[in-house]
């Protein structure tokens, strides 16, 4: 059985790691390059960086950060935010990123998934999906969760897989920031529908939550931010706990 992956997520704004609640009240959580190096030393399997205020003016800053991170790291890392065309993705991959993550741009132009997969390979394309339960359905949200769409989450993820997405980063907005656990029901349901890896995101508050999402939803990876940034959970401790629960991890 493949090892399950533990992935810290760094939200980057103006070159700094930030963390808020429901995308507001952002507070500084440190230098992203320094944090990345610490997580790699602790045993993180991968990292995800999200440029949460991405614009073309800031793209140059992000590329410089990617180069700095790539010099520090020996584990794969994914960059997302502001990628709307092939040239954006190419610049980030050339700077040293291992994968790119797309979200709103893919909903607005689904062919972007196809184009990226064809240009760089399926394994480079991570589709990030922000989902919230509204009126009895799981709905895809855009623009950092602020804009609801008519898309049903399950249908969109299936379509994305067909178009060439290599991995799904699924964030439950209902669980995000609550520290009450991942949305194991939805994650398990979608995992049975598709044949590509799923990264669970939203709701991590304890080591038990990681054990639960791997056991109940059988996801491939679990992602978290603040519990790692503020030292509430240390990755070596988490991996030992998962190992005790017979979940395969790289120690």
From TrEMBL:
Pfam families: His_biosynth
Principal location: cytoplasm
Reaction equation(s) it catalyzes: 5-[(5-phospho-1-deoxy-D-ribulos-1-ylimino)methylamino]-1-(5-phospho-beta-D-ribosyl)imidazole-4-carboxamide + L-glutamine = D-erythro-1-(imidazol-4-yl)glycerol 3-phosphate + 5-amino-1-(5-phospho-beta-D-ribosyl)imidazole-4-carboxamide + L-glutamate + H(+)
Keywords: Amino-acid biosynthesis, Cytoplasm, Histidine biosynthesis, Lyase
Species per Swiss-Prot/TrEMBL record: Pedobacter petrophilus
Gene coding for it: hisF
Taxonomic lineage of the native organism: Bacteria, Pseudomonadati, Bacteroidota, Sphingobacteriia, Sphingobacteriales
A GO term for molecular function: lyase activity
Protein name: Imidazole glycerol phosphate synthase subunit HisF
Enzyme class: lyase
Function: IGPS catalyzes the conversion of PRFAR and glutamine to IGP, AICAR and glutamate. The HisF subunit catalyzes the cyclization activity that produces IGP and AICAR from PRFAR using the ammonia provided by the HisH subunit.
Annotated localization: Cytoplasm
